[in-house]
């Protein structure tokens, strides 16, 4: 699994598998802690990545969302929803990061 992960996360997973294992277990526990669907969880994670201003995380969650069948319009809407809360510049940046993945 770690070999297929791109970038720094994949590097960390390969170099420190015990840390990656603990991190993955925490993520699984958090994901199972409530009633959200997998689709809802992916969109929330994308929104959190946008809020954090993390281009890499926005790319990652956009890629994973596409793999999981989330439609392009839903990903774009998450970026547009950020306008009111985070401001136009952050939302536009997020939209371009999502479009990097969508090929738009």
TrEMBL record:
Residues of the Carboxymuconolactone decarboxylase-like domain: 17-99
PROSITE patterns per record: PROKAR_LIPOPROTEIN (PS51257)
InterPro entries the record matches: AhpD-like, CMD-like
GO terms of molecular function: peroxiredoxin activity
Highest rank taxon of the organism: Bacteria
Alphabetically ordered keywords of this record: Oxidoreductase, Peroxidase
Pfam family, one: CMD
PANTHER family in alphabetical order: ALKYL HYDROPEROXIDE REDUCTASE AHPD, BLR3452 PROTEIN
UniProt-recorded name of the protein: Uncharacterized conserved protein YurZ, alkylhydroperoxidase/carboxymuconolactone decarboxylase family
Organism: Marivita hallyeonensis
